[in-house]
Every structure is written in C-alpha cells, then in structure tokens.
Design goal:
single chain, 2 domains, three-stranded mixed sheet, 7 helices
C-alpha cells in the first residue's frame, strides 16, 4: 500500500501500525514523519510487547505546574487595584458580602491600613506575625475562607516582586523518524 499509493495515509490524523515487518514500518514512519502524522507502532510477542510513538518534536505547555509562580505585585500594587481596595469598605458589609471579597482585595486593603497605622510594611518576624493577626481580626465570621487565603498569602505583601529571566540552551536534535 505504501509503494502503490503513499498519499493514502495523508488523509489520516493518526496512523496505528501493528505487527509490521521492519522494512515497511520504516517506509511508513518516514511517510508519516514527512506529513507530520503521528504514528503509533505496537508489537507483541506473547506477554512481552512494546508501544512506540513516532512524531516530530512539539511543544507541550503544562497548564498545571507543580510550583506556580504568583505575580500579584502586592508589594507595589497597580493604581487600579489600590483604588478598588480603597473603595472596599469591609465594616459596611454583611457576612455574605464579607465572605465574597477576593483575598487579593483584602490583602491590598489591609496592607494600606497597616501602612497608615505603622508608616511602613512589616519587616521583622514579629511584625509579620502581627500583620497576619491584623488580617484575622477583620473577620466577622468563623468560616471566611477568603481571610484564611489572605493570611496564607500575606508574605506576598512584603516580598519584593522581581522579574526572573531564564536563559534557554537548546541543542539541535537530529530529525530521525525512527531509530
């Protein structure tokens, strides 16, 4: 089939080959490689077997990284966030409204209040612990998860935000369709 009508495989988005001899498999792999069609090769011999994927290199983006980098810039918040936080009056809210204030708004608002009271953000360990207690003191209910999130993320208020540059060193790989 490969020699008589090689373009036949161009209509597929994936090709699965099982129990093929080496010569036709190499031809099929080269053909699929040229057309960027993934080729799945499976072979079994009793209870032993293998499964291979032949596909050109492609980029995969991990949408759920193990260590997400948060960049909330709460040490130097944008003017829009400061304006929104200053409009948020926690004392005038009922419990239902209080529970639904995003923790970023809470942190920004309470950091501004802390700064007005103390003249600067917390620097020492006791001051940082007092700031966390300051956040907890603004809770009006026992089950306000947004305040718990704000306490857990309080370090983002006093930690300086930096831009990390990462150099990439890529080696050119040979484009062999099948080893």
């Amino acid at each position: 089939m490969i020699e008589t009508n090689p373009e036949y495989f161009g209509q597929f988005t994936i090709v699965i080959a099982t129990e093929l001899a080496e010569a036709p498999l190499l031809k099929l792999a080269a053909l699929c490689w040229r057309h960027a069609i993934p080729l799945v090769v499976a072979r079994t011999n009793g209870l032993i077997g293998y499964l291979r994927l032949v596909v050109p290199e492609h980029t995969v983006v991990e949408s759920h990284p193990d260590n997400p980098l948060f960049d909330l810039r709460l040490d130097n918040p944008p003017a829009e966030l400061v304006a929104l936080a200053s409009k948020t009056n926690l004392e005038a809210m009922d419990l239902a409204q209080h529970k639904h204030v995003p923790y970023v708004i809470l942190l920004c608002s309470l950091a501004q209040k802390w700064k007005q009271l103390h003249g600067r953000m917390p620097e020492t360990r006791p001051e940082k612990d007092q700031f966390k207690l300051f956040i907890q003191q603004h809770k009006i209910g026992s089950d306000e998860q947004n305040f718990d999130e704000a306490v857990a993320a309080a370090h983002r208020v006093w930690t300086a935000t930096t831009v990390r540059l990462k150099k990439r060193n890529r080696k050119e790989r040979s484009m062999k369709p099948f080893p």
